[in-house]
Amino acid sequence: MRCNKIYLCLLLPFSVLYLLIEKVLVCLSYDIGSIIENIMLTKVVYHIQLKIEKNYPTRVR
Description:
Layout: H1 2-55
């Protein structure tokens, strides 16, 4: 019976640590995904602006 208590005492801190690490990694992956998505959207908008500028120039030459 003593052996089971030792395993339980070791299992609880490691399971809590695992859950905390998992939570941090999920948050980080969401942040990184959001940053990449924003960069991609910025590039798409920039290319659309370039195409509009090419087809409909607004500057006087």
